[in-house]
Specification:
By secondary structure, the protein is of the alpha/beta class. It has one domain: Alpha-Beta Barrel (TIM Barrel), CATH 3.20.20.70. 46% of the residues lie in helices and 12% in strands. The chain is built from 12 helices and 8 strands. The chain has an 8-stranded parallel beta barrel, surrounded by 4 helices. Helix 7 links the parallel strand 6 and strand 7. The longest helix has 18 residues. It starts with 6 loop residues before the first strand and ends with a helix.
């Protein structure tokens, strides 16, 4: 069991065929691409995977495929969250965690619980989970912010709560967690563009979207930051920043799927309510990727 997660994790997309079915050939190409790119762990069924549009059967098929394809080469984290605490606890109890090294659990969305509600939600998840948990704080999607004190209280009570994916964009909150956490709890960036500043403040890695397309380059930046090679990391950060901003300009995972289609890894196909990026951004991404990596 991998207790701690650090370095570069990749929130993988779910490729689709024109008929709407999952494109497992493309998913296999993507996994080989990121593994050979030197990432540290894989996150399946996260937000970037369009998991909310997948059926239970499809989610099970994706996890089975990912476990078979990765074949022990990297730790695997499974996205497992929701806004019905009791139902999520039952789902955890019925999940086969063989081959799964941890779960990424997003803050409850839509309900807008207060901090006491968030604490009790994750308290029950931690009590039920047989594997380590990464909390996922992304207020822009959930409308609920897991405050630093709540994160620290949860980490202090449950040894299987080992990290937080912080995507609030609030560096003061990030610093409060980092300054008061224990050594065995990690803060991970949930925002590619903020990974450089967050890691200079003490974060230990990222769960990345851009690393679907550029795993080697982004992993190199993260590794340089872990080694405190700030200058070379800064150069890598700025070399990718324009592409990162373009990836999120028309929604995620629309941007990264457009990029992956330019790279020949998977099709530019999403499930409603997500749609492809507009034509202007599609061309901008094509030009940016060609400039960054002329061989493509």
């Amino acid at each position: 069991m991998h207790k701690n997660f650090q370095g570069t994790g990749v929130a993988i997309v779910t490729p689709f065929l024109q008929n709407g079915n999952i494109d497992f050939d493309a998913l296999g190409r993507l996994l080989e691409h990121i593994i050979t790119g030197g990432v540290d762990f894989v996150v399946a069924l996260g937000t970037t995977s369009e998991a909310v549009t997948l059926s239970t059967r499809e989610k099970n098929e994706v996890m089975a495929f990912v476990k078979e394809k990765v074949n022990g080469r990297l730790p695997i984290v499974m996205g497992l969250g929701g806004n019905n605490t009791a139902a999520l606890v039952e789902q955890i109890k019925s999940t086969d965690f063989n081959g799964i090294d941890g779960i990424l659990s997003v803050a409850p969305y839509y309900n807008k619980p207060n901090q006491r509600g968030l604490y009790e939600h994750f308290n029950q998840i931690a009590t039920a989970s047989p594997v380590p948990i990464i909390l996922y704080n992304v207020p822009g999607r959930t409308s609920s912010n897991i405050q630093a004190k709540t994160v620290l209280k949860l980490a202090g009570k449950h040894t299987n709560i080992v990290a937080v994916k912080e995507a609030s964009g609030d560096l003061n909150q990030v610093m409060e967690i980092i300054n008061n956490k224990t050594d065995d709890f990690n803060v991970l960036s949930g925002d590619d563009a903020l990974t450089f500043p967050m890691m200079t403040l003490g974060a230990k890695g990222v769960i990345s979207v851009v690393a679907n397309a550029f795993p080697a380059e982004f992993s190199q930046m993260v590794n340089h930051l872990l080694e405190e090679k700030i200058g070379s990391a800064r150069t890598l950060h700025y070399s990718l920043l324009e592409i990162i901003n373009q990836l999120f300009a028309d929604g995620n995972p629309a941007g990264i799927k457009a990029a992956l289609s330019h790279m020949g890894i998977c099709g530019n196909i999403l499930r409603l309510p997500m749609v492809s990026v507009d034509e202007m951004l599609f061309q901008k991404l094509k030009d940016s990727i060609a400039a960054y990596r002329p061989s493509l």
